[in-house]
Amino acid sequence: MVSQASQISQVSRISGLSSNEVRERIQRGETNTLKTESSRSAADIIRSNIFTLFNAIILTAMLLVLITGMWKDAVFGFVIIINTVIGIFTEVRSKITLDRLSILVAAKHTVRRDGADKEIGHDDIVLDDVLWIKSGDQVPADGQVIEDYGLELDESMLTGESRTVKKDIGDSVYSGSTAVSGSALIRVTAVGAHSYAAKLTEEAKVFTKTHSDINDDINKILKFMIIIVVPLCALLIWSQIRLVGGWTVAISTGAWRDAIVQAVAGIVGLIPEGLVLLTSLNFALAAYRLAQKNTLIQELEAVETLARVDALNLDKTGTLTDGGIALDDVVVLPHADIGEEDIKRALYAVTHEEVLNPTAQAVQKGLAKEYEQSFAQMSLKSRVPFSSARKWSSIVLADGQQWFFGAPEIITAALSVNSSAVMTRVQEIADSGARVLVLAYAATSHETDRDVDESDILEIINPNARVQALVVCSESVRPDAQQTLAWFRQQGVRPRVISGDNPRTVAAIAHKVKLTGESMPRSIDARDLPDTVQEVATVLEDVDVVGRVLPHQKKLIVQALHSQGHTVAMTGDGVNDALALKEADLGIAMGNAASATKAVAQVVLVDSLFSHLPDVVARGRQVMANMERVASLFLVKTTYSTVISLGVVLLGLNFPYLPRHMTYIGWFTIGTPAFFLALAPNTRRYLPGFLQRVLRIAIPAGLATGVSVLASTFFVPRIMGWTDLAEHMVQLRTVNVAVLFVLGIVMLASISRPLKSWRGWLVAFFTIAGVAGAYIPFIAKFFQLNAPSTVQDLLLTGGVSLVAVSIWVCIRWIARRSRRFLHKLDR
């Protein structure tokens, strides 16, 4: 192979840019500086978590209460702080981790300027620079080859094609590709934001919020509530002011403060603030648990998306395969002159070089256990190492045996014997997606002519050699791929492989990992895909593997699956995957992925292990299935608060409780128990229609609770003969709080079933804790709770609560019967 020194001497005529030309380009901004962000900025994260519709509503209500000076009734406002802090902390923590993953060593590059080689940094490269690309370098800028010394590039990060690409003079090279062998001089044709990789990821840089059904449904409720909150709040204040004798009396006596606080009590109850907080808390907890398994959640809403996924698009390289090469088989040909053991021993020897290329590494690993010791006893006379320009390597043993190993078309072309049968067999195996090389043998090496240098003879393939065996290699499959794919199939998630490689190659690997079970995966070349979304969607129904896919086609495939109502997850590691990951509902990037790819992904598998995906999906399903179970608790409160607020205005009643009462009741009957229920194991796949299913439970229960509290507020004073209601307001509120607490516990028990488990103990604990709190002086004073202390009070509270439970049971029974009846009519 040509040495670096001889390369430099051959290109001494190329002077490169002069110092003045470099300065001119720097002044014009034609440098390789490129601002890259691995994730959202901290400011964006903070802004998106603070400025929300929910925060605006709760903050306004809190400020109204604080104006009155009754700060104890404003404790509900702390949910803003807690909810915001959870979101910011989790997402910033993910950002910090992702930024650490994206820190790269600032590599130096050699350019030719003023007729000499000079080492400079990545950002100091300018347009038209003459740049050396050597084996192991990552190409820092786009360019055109002007001198070639066997350069081969791995362009998989850009194209998805895993095979290396040989470059010749005049060929283009793109930033982001990696030199795997050889070297070349290139003239830089595009730098910075104008490079191929930068243009490819430009569209992906725009941040889009992850879609969340829960948040969408909550926002629907909030938007609906905004329509009625303002007029209802005004009506509540007006009704409470009227009860105390009008604005003049209210202002002179300070009763306006109570009116505002009571109005806010009605408004706050309409907002499912606990559901918002619990959603954020459970998303954050799921993200934390996944982080412990090296899975990074960049946006909390992605946890929900995990539960909805039913289509999984997999990139082959880095997902099903680990990017390496594995030895599959050594096929000894029928006409072989040497025994199988000797052939494998020679194969081990010819690939046992000081610097191993990927194929040699695979052979060495595949044969090491059996032939490593025997190799130590072999006597080698000479060796010709592998060269990407030559495409073969050879050894000569002490007894004169000569072995050649390399590309079939190169070696067979140099042989005197007809090798058409060998090449036919090579092609048959290659069609299955394997990489095939040949091992040839000559009994004696060339007789050395006295006038010919032996080193020159060794550079020539002995024409008398005969091919003894075919060496079959393929991409190294991840050991966890088959089990992981089986899990997805069992869970109703259909995996497809979308790759830039040859579809036959990809299909063979997909079959090896049982992508479709025992059946052979159906494949298609992306060049045969139609151009419209609907036509692609039709084709994909019968396709498991798509090969030769271009970046824009990956995005088109995701759009096609969306058109069929699928929730799509997409894995990837290359820049070519960025657009598809952004388009997918859930983008999943490997930890070793390009920075641009990790920046647009919602999930990053830090250690690049495909086997983490079942944990990721299962955790999302657990959160969503349990959130649906407990969401009805929160929307019951929204429903009965609406009923009570309207009833208070229409019936001219005093508001039956204070905001702090709602905080206390919510703590023991909704928020805290719901948090524990949301942690229970649950792998049920999420289905659309979250809000409808929850409302079917919440509305009847909320209606029953609201009617019960209004009935208590209206009838109890009349039954008890309380002529001066102001004197008995504390007692009346005690009864109403008891009704809310009892019905809250009944509802909690209903959604916690079966109770013959830890769930029953959970309900019992919060029942006892809620009652006990009313008898603890500090708590009772802070929340203005007045526990029944006389027999009369106990009988009154117990009797009203019993009636309320009866009303609750009746309305729930009627609602269930109505649903069954309507369902029969639909049939």
Automatic annotation (TrEMBL):
Main location: membrane
Subcellular locations according to the entry: Cell membrane
Protein name as annotated: HAD-IC family P-type ATPase
InterPro entries, per database record: ATPase_P-typ_cyto_dom_N, ATPase_P-typ_P_site, ATPase_P-typ_TM_dom_sf, ATPase_P-typ_transduc_dom_A_sf, ATPase_P-type_domA, HAD-like_sf, HAD_sf, P_typ_ATPase
Membrane topology: Multi-pass membrane protein
PANTHER family: CALCIUM-TRANSPORTING ATPASE (PTHR42861)
NCBIfam families the record matches: ATPase_P-type (TIGR01494)
Spans traversing the lipid bilayer: 50-68, 74-92, 221-239, 259-288, 634-658, 664-682, 694-716, 728-749, 761-783, 795-815
Residue ranges of every copy of the P-type ATPase A domain listed in the record: 106-203
Keyword terms, alphabetized: Membrane, Translocase, Transmembrane, Transmembrane helix
Signal sequence, renumbered to the chain: none
Organism: Alloscardovia venturai
